[in-house]
Predict the 3D structure of the following.
Amino acid sequence: PGTTMAEAKYKSASSAIEGGKQVVSPGAPNMTEDEFAFAQKTYFQRCAGCHGVLRKGATGLPLTTDITQKKGTDYLKSLIKFGSPGGMPNWGTSGELTDAQIDIMARFLQHEPPTPPEWGMPEMKNSWKVLVKPEDRLKEPEHDYDIDNIFAVTLRDAGEVAIIDGDSKKVLNYVPTGYAVHISRASSSGRYFTTIGRDGKIDLIDLYMKKPDVVASIKIGLEARSVENSRYKGYEDKIAIAGAYWPPHYVLMDGQTLEPKKIVSTRGMTVDTQEYHPEPRVAAIVGSHKHPEFIVNVKETGQIKLVDYSDIDNLQVTTIDAAPFLHDGGWDSSRRYFMTAANENDRIAVVDALERKLEALIPVERIPHPGRGANFIDPKYGPVWATSALGNANITLIGTDPENHKEHAFKVARILEGQGGGSLFIKTHPKSKNLWVDTPLNPDPAISQSVAVFDIDNLDAGFKTLPIAEWADLGPGPKRIVQPEYNKAGDEVWFSVWSGMNEKSAIVIVDDKTRKLKHVIKGDKIVTPTGKFNNYNTRNEIY
Ligand code: DHE
């Protein structure tokens, strides 16, 4: 099936990259400077997510000039307008681009791609700010809130993160951060949240402050999605890492100040055909609990890097060949196995973090998207980790217990059928019997505006749906329900009701036991909430 417009928009959300130089290429049709500027911006916003900034191809086909000049303007125009069964969206007939705009894009693709600037140590150092030095920070919390139950909630299009007390549901501060913060991770002590914006800006937020606020910040690239903190015993709050989409690299930093220490490029060879890829983007990063290492997914090359941070000057990196298009993932319940999606490859890669090797590559149905996944005990198959998917309604349960359930270990144990495709996130909690599955990218509003919930003790009974968007009681808007997250106690689930920037959004909190509405957080400041990260659950890998 072709890509839906919702899926295309998900993959190709606006990039923060600007500032490439115009290149006039022999053999390409003429363009005015204005046309070139329009096309460059449109390409970064809508095309780079799949075809790559340098157009060498990623989940979309390569669009290098040797190919595009041969195809010519008319062919490219009709491809952009009507799309293709291979997954190219129909930018023209969907009304997203006019014929005149498509003509500009078709000519632009026959010119050499403008290369965005690099971002190395001088640029990082220039952007780096320590607002409160570690020695000047509070010695203990200035408030009585339970720090463990504080949530960081991305207010995507406001460029803010709301710091919310999970007990009172009070917003303690709206912290200005990088643009469209993708994720927040809690430091291992629980004192800090580290957030990363789409624009590569990291903010270190100190939860000891009465009004939690930024104590250090840095910009580690022009486009980024991932940040993590050291988890290994003895290294709590010592080292931070962030991964960039552009330039393709990761950087190790001081955990207390974000001072950049070491940048490592990810440019290199793909695992399958062993061809050079100029922009392998850094996707999910997790901190190992078994060694002083970060586990870094390199998307386009399909390599998983185990980066040992115990001696940064003599950096040891173990490279595991997995499969291209590594994206998101999380730990199994023992925190030994990192379960991660090679999403466009329809596989789940399993890394044994103790033995430092690939444990399995498990084939699954079209485009698995676990977020961090969900761990629970299947009454029949024992401990499992589950993922939902973008491309179909399956919820795939994978056995994770090689000791006592060897025959199902790292194999698909069972498949549940959810509401539909377009799912991004799935969640449960060790104290709960519910498994929650969102479907924000499903084209049917009845599905994207509700969530499915399964009873873990009776999985064969199928799911019930809860009308989360209706409970938020907002006006018009797409109101996609996205990313369930538990509170620390495991008796509440929080959902984002994500509308447009100029429409009303909300956070809906459901009582886990009764599955009834418990609370709605809304108001003018709650703009486009997406990811929600509970301090305790995030740092203890509870999902
Ligand atoms: Fe995400 C996680 C990348 C679109 C919300 N997203 C991640 C991670 C990556 C990633 C690499 C894992 C980080 C980690 O664990 O270290 N996301 C991308 C994309 O490249 C993509 C497809 C397109 C883009 O241009 O960004 C994309 N993501 C989206 C969205 O459209 C979402 C719904 C809203 C948004 O912010 O744009 C979205 N992504 C999230 C969230 C997480 C996430 C909430 C963390 C989930 C968790 O429970 O930890």
